[in-house]
Structure formats: C-alpha cells, structure tokens
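hey
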C-alpha cells in the first residue's frame, strides 16, 4: 500500500465545517432519521421558473461550448447593467469577471494578490472559507473580534491591527454567520482607510439583496471612484436567485486585478458553465419578483426564530439585519452543561436530529449558527428539539 503525502500548502486547510454538517445530516437521513437541517447556507427555494426555462432554451440552442474564460460578454454586460441599476456605478467590462460561484471569485482574487507573509484583516465571526484561502496563499489572517461591538466593524478597529505587512481587508455585509449589516458610512470609512494606507478591500456581497427593512442593500460599488478603485466587489447569484448549484459568481475590480484573476481561471476551471451563464442573464435581466418573495419569507422566519431562540434558557440572540442566519450566544447553556459549542452541535445532531453549525467554526466560540433557509414548520420543530435537549442537559 503506498502512502499518499499531501502538499505542504494544505497542511493547515480544514474541510468546510458547514459542508461537513450537511454531509452528517445526509448520513443520518440515510439511516432513516427525520433530520431537520438548520445547518445549510442554501436557500430552500427552487430556482425560479424563468431562469430554469432560460437554461433549457440555452441548451436547446446549443449553448454548450467553451466561452471566454472570464465569462461571456453578454453576461458581463448584464452584470455591469445590474450593478449600474443598483448603485449608479458603471463598470467597464474589463473590470468584470464571471466565475464558478462567489467562492471561486474570492479564491482567484486572493491567489492573484497575496504573497507569502501578507496579512489579511478578517473580522470575526467570519465565513469559514476566508482564512482557509488566505492560508492556502501563504498569507496570514489577522482576526478582529467584533462580538463585543454587536458584530460591527469600524475603521478604528482595523487601524489598531495594521502592520507594514497588511495588504487586504475583507468585509462581508450582510454577514455569514452573524447576519450583521455594516452601515454604509462605516464601509466608506473602511475604504478611506484602505486608500490612505495602500490596502485593498474585498467586499463580499453575496447576501446583498437579503437585507430586512429598515436596513437597505448597500454595495461598495457605490463608493466614489477614488475609493472604489481599491475595492473588489464579490457577488453571487447563488443565494439571491436560489441558484447555488448553478455556480455563477462574479467580481468587479481594478482591470489589472481582473486580468490576473482571468489568468488563474483560464488555467483552472476555464469558463463557468455555459448554459448557466445564459440562465444568469435571465436572472439579472428578468423579473425580480421571486427575490422579493424570498426576502419576505426569510423575514417572516427571522421574526419567528429570533425571539424563539432568545427565549431558550441560557441563550441570547441579537436580531440579524440580513442574510438568513441567526447566531445565538449559547454560552449560558454550555457553561451549565460543561460542554463546548462543537459538542453541543454534535449532540443536537445525534440526539435531537437537528443540524446546526458550532460558532467556533466561524471564530466565535459559544455561539451556534442556525440557518432559517428552511420552512417555518421545520424551524419550529427544530427549535422544539433544541429546547428539549437543553432541558435534558440541565
Ligand atoms: C459569505 C459567503 N461568501 C461567498 C459564498 C459563496 O457562495 P457561492 O460560491 O455559492 O457563490 C458564500 C456561500 O455560502 C458565503 O456564505
């Protein structure tokens, strides 16, 4: 039997804990258990009909061949038009790239800019993938805990951790996992700091549309040109249009950054799936009614789940202003039971058949990430089961 030795650069890479939770749920289901999945970062809605029809039409028209590695001109134009409509900013097509999901966009962006030892500022809690990509690139993640600031990030907090090696700041608003929306003024001040200190800002806006009133969607694409030129806006159709499996994401950035990302993409995946690109044009240009329907449904679920979580003995839960996650602090439960959040998540899976993700996966020990991208009925049953386990734990 030969021994496989992985590359050194993967020594510190962990498998995605959110994907692991979904796989664990599938295993339990295969054993015949009724599992309630509040772990997945995935809309429970089907891709809207008009988008599916556009893909079918594209297939029937033979749109099944390679496209330019960075995406078709037609889709780039649709993205540029969409962003112009949303923000008033018109990006040239040389500033647009289409990738196989926001994840690939972010991967290509960081691979294209980081040298070994470069520091990347990441507010915690953070999406699990950010530090993994940074580590893969030989970069160093510098985390800024935001727990005591209501998960808000300010330019001051960033300024305190800057070093001569700082190169990139990542913001993600609305945030996965906290659901926090960073105020436009705070984003502007962060962009100003980046401009003053020769830093680059990555704004991951994959939940951009899922913001609950009175909060309003805000994109760093609407910053003034002198700030915007240092910003890479990363977007995705996955959540907005319930298109997770279609793998369409995009970035808007300095044309030289986009050119480097295109180079990386041309030697890795090449173009994102051709007929999915044509469907994406329909998503961006067609009726937006489904987005409003999904947003209203998420809001109704949020309005139910947050008070229900806050009422659990030993739990506290702030109101998320965006995305579709609740992020309760369950340290009271954990202290009483003498366990860690990962143990609690494991016991919830095995004993209550509810999938959640432990906060420590996102750099926030003592929390749980609970996705409400599930039916209200399932959410209710899930919370009942969580409550029952908390009671059993004493
Ligand atoms: C914060 C954040 N960014 C980016 C992504 C990437 O999504 P996709 O690759 O499906 O576009 C996700 C998906 O969960 C996410 O939560």
């Amino acid at each position: 039997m030969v021994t496989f030795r992985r590359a050194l650069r993967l020594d510190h890479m962990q498998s995605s804990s959110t994907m692991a939770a979904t796989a664990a749920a599938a295993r339990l289901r295969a054993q015949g258990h009724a599992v309630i999945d509040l772990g997945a970062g995935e809309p429970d809605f089907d891709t809207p009909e008009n988008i599916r029809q556009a893909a079918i039409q594209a297939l029937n028209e033979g749109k099944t061949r390679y496209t330019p590695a960075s995406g078709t001109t037609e889709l780039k134009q649709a993205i540029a038009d969409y962003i112009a409509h949303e923000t008033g900013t018109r990006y040239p097509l040389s500033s647009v790239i289409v990738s196989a999901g926001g994840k690939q966009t972010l991967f290509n962006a960081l691979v294209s800019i980081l040298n070994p030892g470069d520091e990347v500022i990441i507010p915690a809690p953070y999406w699990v993938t950010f530090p993994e990509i940074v580590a893969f690139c030989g970069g160093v993640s510098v985390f800024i805990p935001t727990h005591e600031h209501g998960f808000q990030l300010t330019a001051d907090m960033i300024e305190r951790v800057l070093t001569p090696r700082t190169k990139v700041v990542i913001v993600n608003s609305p945030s996965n996992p906290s659901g926090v929306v960073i105020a436009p003024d705070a984003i502007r001040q962060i962009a100003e700091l980046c401009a003053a200190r020769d830093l680059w800002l990555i704004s991951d806006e994959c939940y951009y549309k899922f913001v609950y009133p009175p909060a309003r969607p805000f994109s760093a694409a609407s910053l003034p040109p002198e700030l915007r030129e240092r910003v890479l806006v990363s977007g995705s159709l996955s959540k907005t249009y319930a298109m997770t499996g279609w793998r369409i994401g995009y970035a808007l950035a300095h044309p030289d950054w986009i050119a480097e990302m295109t180079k990386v993409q041309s030697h890795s995946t090449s173009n994102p799936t051709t007929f999915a690109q044509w469907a994406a044009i329909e998503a961006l240009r067609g009726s937006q009614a489904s987005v409003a329907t999904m947003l209203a449904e998420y809001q109704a679920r949020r309005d139910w789940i947050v008070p229900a979580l806050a009422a659990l003995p030993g739990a506290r839960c702030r109101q998320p202003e965006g995305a579709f996650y609740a992020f309760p602090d369950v340290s009271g439960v954990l202290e009483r039971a003498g366990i860690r959040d990962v143990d609690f998540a494991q016991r919830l899976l095995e004993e209550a058949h509810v999938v959640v993700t432990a906060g420590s996966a996102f750099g926030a020990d003592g929390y749980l990430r609970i996705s409400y991208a599930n039916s209200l009925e399932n959410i209710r049953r899930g919370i009942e089961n969580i409550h029952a386990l908390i009671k059993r734990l004493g």
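Residues 8-46+289-393 form a domain with the Aspartate Aminotransferase, domain 1 fold (CATH 3.90.1150.10). The chain is about 40% helix and 15% strand.
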